[in-house]
Specification:
heterodimer; A: mainly beta; Ubiquitin-like (UB roll); five-stranded mixed sheet; 1 helix; 10% helix; B: Aldehyde Ferredoxin Oxidoreductase,  A, domain 1; Aldehyde Ferredoxin Oxidoreductase Protein, subunit A, domain 2; six-stranded mixed sheet; 24 helices; 15% strand; binds iron/sulfur cluster
């Protein structure tokens, strides 16, 4: 198992109260879990996620989570 | 369409036909062309030879969506180079409906401050009287009573003191002093001319109708469709729901949120000042608070907001991402109520929230107050209000304040404070800051879209590769959009949806009678930029001005621990220096 901290932002917060909170959620997931798998575990239906940052770097959905990763997940975001 | 030329040394207003060479220009293209043609590049920005230009965009005043932008141009007392600062406001629409292609304010008067009143077929000057020296909330309240139905343009008390962080203020849909052409100190230029208020009365005017109605209709439909379907700009999309401050968490995750005067790229208090939190506060407190406010009638994106006090009454409109960051994370302040109060002071004094926040960050760096000291930061606004010696130093901006206190870590380019993206963590926007003729300006070429937001493609924010070309393409395209009168946020949908981009170009052609193709957008934008660079060169700027603050070259920025390592030659490619 690997431990990750997950933060959901903006409209994604509604899908998971724990990860949607300000401090995110500490999660234990099986080895080999990808970011895409994580969305399933969090109960986020398809089509809502735009991208995820892992330790400050944007990663593809097939990125396999590692112990200690900080994952921030976003719907489409804009501003300026 | 006509030019209204206000000669302050004569205290007279002249109506001029628009010379042919300006007929197909508008917004930034027009203000920048006029600056190059009429303002001596070496003049003092606050002297008698300087001028102020106010020009609505090409499609402004028509029924095109999100198109009520107005450009204000002049020589900047902050950067001493060319400046265009634009705002979204119903006043932009009023000017266009009155047939005013540009307001040109020139000369100067020693005879106090004046109000310019513009209405259908009339324009005249009157003494500004009792409202001089007053905060802009009080002034706009009084103007609203005196001139119901009109819109207002003003410079605030900070501009009366000729402070370089003063902006030109426009009224919003409710007559608040909240929509700013904030950057570069153009408020001080307005004050130096002797104009305090401009009252724009749209009575008996009607929406502008495009010359080529059919083409306009086609283009408008394509653009509106793109805006209404793109997940960012559609109703209920993130801009609409969380405002621009939804970016706080995004930049924080990416490690590019400048924190405590650009010491780190992450702020531990980010969640407390985020757009998500703002939306929660608005919901909890109820009352006057709202997200999803439009800055003018005709915007379907509606990214603006009204922030309430704990009792639900209005505190301020509006808290943008940039203001939130500048007065929040950049100062180590994690208290939205305090940030809202500071934005109120900025609106009331007539100052740029970005320059104010960057300056306070530098003051904190200098040890005048501690990072995170919200009460201390609020007290600095009182110094500016009082016009104390300290207030005058701060009011001249971050670069000046840094000099006054011997600070090395001063995040400015060409004397203008950097906005809310860390160049060491988002390289493309750094190139934009450094090479824009406007000084550090995020709106000049928003490569953040592909670098952080994955809009308009994807680019690795930490990589230098291809970034000079990317920044140049964005800067050129933006110069064109700044001519159109469209809000820059239409860039999000039209970067991803090709028909929206076509629609934008078609509506412009339909109004201006031009034949721009898609490929012409960046080309003509590049031409506008070359005029602007030409002015800066004539003003004495060289490639040495297209350089980052030195500390960014040697101080690694956590969490990525990267430095600014884009070669200078790459920067010089952009301006062709
Ligand atoms: S998107 Fe925001 S800034 Fe742009 S026109 Fe609409 S309300 Fe104004």
């Amino acid at each position: 198992m690997v431990q990750v901290r997950v933060y959901l932002y903006a409209t994604l917060r509604a899908f998971n109260a724990a990860a949607g909170g300000d401090t995110g959620a500490e999660m234990e997931v099986p080895d080999g879990t990808s970011i895409a798998d994580l969305y399933g575990l969090l109960g986020i239906p398809e089509g809502h996620v735009k991208q995820a940052f892992v330790n400050g770097r944007r990663q593809d959905p097939d990125y396999v989570l590692r112990d200690g990763d900080r994952v921030g997940v976003f719907p489409p975001i804009g501003g300026g | 369409m006509k030019f209204l030329r206000v000669k302050m040394d004569e205290l007279k207003v002249y109506t001029e036909e628009v010379p042919e060479k300006y007929q197909k220009l508008a917004g930034r293209a027009l203000t920048s062309r006029l600056i190059c043609d009429e303002v001596p590049a070496t003049c003092h920005p606050l002297g008698p030879k300087a001028k102020l230009f106010i020009a609505p965009g090409a499609v402004t005043g028509t029924s095109a969506p999100s198109s009520a932008r107005v450009s204000v141009g002049g020589k900047s007392p902050l950067t001493w180079g060319i400046k265009e600062a634009n705002a979204g406001t119903p006043v932009a629409q009023y000017l266009a409906r009155l047939g005013i292609k540009a307001l040109i304010i020139e000369g100067e008067t020693k005879d106090g401050y004046w109000t310019l009143k513009v209405s259908k077929d009339a324009a005249k000057l009157e003494p500004a009287g009792d409202l001089v020296g007053k905060g802009l909330y009080e002034a706009y309240h009084a103007l609203k009573e005196r001139y119901p139905g009109a819109g207002f343009i003003a410079c605030g008390p900070a501009a009366e003191r000729k402070l370089s962080m003063s902006g030109v203020c426009f009224s919003d849909t409710d007559g608040r002093p909240s929509r700013y052409s904030g950057r570069g100190g153009l408020g001080a230029v307005m004050a130096a001319k002797g104009i305090k208020f401009i009252v724009v009365d749209p009575a008996w005017t009607s929406p502008v109708v495009a010359e080529n109605r059919e083409l306009f209709k086609t283009g408008q439909a394509k653009l509106a469709d793109a805006i209404l379907t793109h997940p960012l700009s559609k109703p209920g999309g993130t801009l609409n729901t969380y405002g621009t401050a939804a970016l706080i968490n995004a930049l924080n995750e990416a490690g590019g949120l400048p924190t405590r005067n650009f010491r780190t790229g992450r702020f531990e208090g980010a969640a407390k000042i985020s757009g998500e939190r703002m939306a929660e506060v608005v919901k909890e407190r109820g009352g006057a608070g709202m997200m999803g406010q439009g800055c003018h009638p005709g915007c379907t994106i509606k990214c603006s907001n009204v922030y309430p006090k704990p009792d639900g009454t209005e505190l301020v409109s509006c808290i943008e991402y940039e203001s939130d960051w500048a007065l929040g994370a950049n100062c180590g302040i994690d208290d939205l109520d305090a940030i809202a109060e500071m934005v109120w002071h900025c609106n009331d004094l007539g100052i740029d929230t970005i320059e104010a926040g960057v300056t306070i960050g530098v003051a904190m760096e200098a040890g005048l107050l501690q990072f995170g000291d919200a009460a201390g930061a609020l007290a600095l606004f009182e110094e500016i209000r009082k016009g104390s010696a300290l207030g005058h130093i701060l009011g001249q901006g971050a670069a000046f304040t840094g000099r006054a206190f011997g600070v090395v870590r001063v995040p400015t380019v060409k004397g203008q404070g950097m906005p809310a993206y860390e160049p060491r963590a988002v390289k493309g926007i750094g190139i934009t800051y450094i090479t824009s003729p406007m000084g550090a300006d995020h709106t000049a070429g928003y490569t953040t879209a592909p670098e952080i937001l994955s809009v308009g493609g994807k680019a690795d924010p930490l990589s230098n590769e291809g970034k000079a070309d990317l920044s140049k393409a964005f800067q050129d395209t933006t110069a064109f959009i700044d001519m159109t009168g469209y809000c820059l946020f239409i860039a999000f949908p039209i970067l991803d949806i090709a028909s929206g981009f076509e629609g934008m170009v078609e509506t412009v052609n339909a109004v201006l009678g031009t034949n721009f193709t898609g490929a012409d957008v960046a080309k003509f934008g590049g031409e506008i930029m070359s005029w602007e660079r030409g002015f800066n060169r004539a003003a004495g700027m060289t490639s040495a001005h297209d350089r980052p603050p030195e500390f960014m070259r040697y101080e690694p920025l956590p969490p990525h621990n990267t430095v600014w390592d884009v070669p200078d030659e790459e920067l010089d490619k952009i301006a062709g220096n």
